[in-house]
Amino acid sequence: MGLLTILKKMREKERELRLLVLGLDNAGKTTLLKRLNGEDVGGTSPTLGFNIKTLEHRGFQLHVWDVGGQSSLRSYWRNYFESTDGLVWVVDSSDRQRLQVC
C-alpha cells in the first residue's frame, strides 16, 4: 500500500486503483470527490456509512471510497484499509477548533 504500490501498478497492466478518502465529519470529503468528478456540490449532506465512486483518469479506473467521518463511524475505518492502494486525508483547515483532533 502506498506510493510504491501505485507506481508498480502504473507500469503493469493492472489499471485499477482503490483510494480511501477519510477525515473528520464535515471536512469536505464528499464535496472534494464531487468536484473531482465534475458534479454539482449543492445540497451535499453528511455521508452515513460510505459511498463508492469510480472515476476514469488517463486509462486508470479509480475506485474512490468516501467514508463518513462521524465519531461513531471512526472505529470502523480500519475495516476499509484492506486492498487500498492510497489514502487521502481531508482536513478542513478553517475549522481551527478541530485541527488538534485531526
Automatic annotation (TrEMBL):
Family under the similarity heading: Belongs to the small GTPase superfamily. Arf family.
Q: Which domain of life is it from?
A: Eukaryota
What SMART domains does the record point to?
A: ARF
- PROSITE patterns per record: ARF
Per the record's keyword annotation, is GTP-binding included, yes or no?
Answer: yes
Q: What is its main location?
A: cytoplasm
Does the record's keyword annotation contain Nucleotide-binding? yes
Q: Which GO terms describe its molecular function?
A: GTP binding; GTPase activity; metal ion binding
UniProt keyword annotations, A-Z: GTP-binding, Lipoprotein, Magnesium, Metal-binding, Myristate, Nucleotide-binding
Organism per entry: Onychorhynchus coronatus
Q: What NCBIfam families would the database entry show? A: small_GTP
* Residues the entry annotates as binding Mg(2+): 30, 47
Task: Tell me where it resides.
Answer: Cytoplasm, Cytoskeleton, Microtubule organizing center, Centrosome
Q: Where does GTP bind?
A: 23-30, 69
Lineage of source species: Eukaryota, Metazoa, Chordata, Craniata, Vertebrata
Q: What is this protein called?
A: ARL2 protein
Gene Ontology CC terms: centrosome
